[in-house]
Amino acid sequence: MLLIQEQMCHLGILLSIHQQHSKIDQLLIHQQIELLEVLTGFETNNKYEIKNSLGQRVYFAVEDTDFCTRNCCGPSRPFTLRILDNMGKEVITLERPLRCSSCCCPCCLQEIEIQAPPGVPVGYVTQTWHPCLPKFTIQNEKREDVLKITGPCIVCSCCADIDFEIKSLDEQILVGKISKQWTGILREAFTDADNFGIQFPLDLDVKMKAVMMGACFLI
């Protein structure tokens, strides 16, 4: 009986994800500013609002890490990110292990696992070694390469968005993009709260849309 209930719960979450993602070709991810972090400099668990192109919230994401991990490992820290729907139910889980952030260490590059529903992997995003460009590969649940992501050589910019292009495996067809949006001089200077946008085809497989969301959080 418990197994049947668990299967029905997973089916319900999958249906919810499909209904949400099938109608979406753009997502906006807004990191919330944590006042305690601004005042003390100590990293707190990040929280994000995920909205559609109309500005309606479709998901809420919260990081699940301990104090020592956040403040000792910094941006390279391992984390679990739980993505909740508007009813507070966890529908997607992102798992990122501890990895090296240096391009000089090709044996220990960044990666993230996307689970939808939680506990069921639907894809992975792995960093591809390159001497000067941030490059990533999107994989399906079988770890087969599906898409490529390439960012600019300089990943900081003043008064302009930074675009990471999502392309086909041969890098000839542009499928979509992930953009770090410029949020103004004060916010950029005094906080590490970022805004991102994701664009993809409306008819893209819903699993791949979830994986692209994971790619955005990895970036």
Structure write-up:
Its cofactor is Ca(2+). InterPro entries: Scramblase. May mediate accelerated ATP-independent bidirectional transbilayer migration of phospholipids upon binding calcium ions that results in a loss of phospholipid asymmetry in the plasma membrane. This is Phospholipid scramblase. Keywords: Calcium, Lipoprotein, Membrane, Palmitate, Phosphoprotein, Transmembrane, Transmembrane helix. The chain has 219 residues and is α+β, with helices and mostly antiparallel strands. The chain contains 5 helices and 12 strands. The chain has helices at 2-21, 35-40, 67-73, 185-190, 206-218, and strands at 26-31, 47-51, 57-64, 79-84, 90-96, 111-115, 121-128, 135-140, 145-150, 162-167, 174-181, 195-199. A 12-stranded antiparallel β-barrel has the order 1-2-3-4-5-6-7-8-9-10-11-12. Strand 8 (135-140) and strand 9 form a beta hairpin. The longest helix has 20 residues, at 2-21. It is globular, with a radius of gyration of 17 Å. It starts with a helix and ends with a helix. The relative contact order is 0.16. Mean pLDDT is 81; it is low at 185-191.
